[in-house]
From TrEMBL:
<dbReference type="InterPro" id="IPR001533">
    <property type="entry name" value="Pterin_deHydtase"/>
</dbReference>
<protein>
    <recommendedName>
        <fullName>4a-hydroxytetrahydrobiopterin dehydratase</fullName>
        <ecNumber>4.2.1.96</ecNumber>
    </recommendedName>
</protein>
<dbReference type="Pfam" id="PF01329">
    <property type="entry name" value="Pterin_4a"/>
</dbReference>
<dbReference type="GO" id="GO:0006729">
    <property type="term" value="P:tetrahydrobiopterin biosynthetic process"/>
</dbReference>
<dbReference type="GO" id="GO:0008124">
    <property type="term" value="F:4-alpha-hydroxytetrahydrobiopterin dehydratase activity"/>
</dbReference>
<dbReference type="InterPro" id="IPR036428">
    <property type="entry name" value="PCD_sf"/>
</dbReference>
<keyword id="KW-0456">Lyase</keyword>
<comment type="similarity">
    <text>Belongs to the pterin-4-alpha-carbinolamine dehydratase family.</text>
</comment>
Length: 111
């Protein structure tokens, strides 16, 4: 089943972090994302600070539905970094790749 069609595990503390080989298998399924500082990361260049806030409002809606939330950073007023990492598990999990895939699949997050 496609990752974007799957649901995040609602109990991330019971999920083990993915092994390096599994991360390397999954990374090909989420174009535009990379591993940086042990997190699944993507940079988005938007048109304005307000655009970043609108983007984050939509991401908040998705995150609440799935019960999984990213780290975010806005810099230079219009650049946004989204980083997925499952703190309860101490690493990158399938949930992180599911969220990245959902973002890639959604028109709203294509910039």
């Amino acid at each position: 089943m496609d990752l974007h069609k799957q649901r995040c595990d609602p109990e991330p503390s019971r999920i083990s972090p993915l092994a390096r080989r599994d991360i390397l298998d999954y990374i090909d399924r989420v174009p535009g994302w990379e591993i940086s500082e042990r997190k699944l990361v993507r940079k988005f260049d938007l048109k304005s600070f307000e655009g970043c806030l609108d983007f984050l409002a939509d991401l908040n809606d998705l995150s609440k539905r799935e019960g999984h939330f990213p780290d975010v950073m806005i810099y230079n007023r219009k650049n946004l970094v989204i980083a997925w990492y499952t703190y309860e598990s101490g690493g990158i999990t399938r949930n992180d790749f599911i969220m990245a895939a959902k973002m890639n699949f959604s028109e709203r997050f294509r910039v």
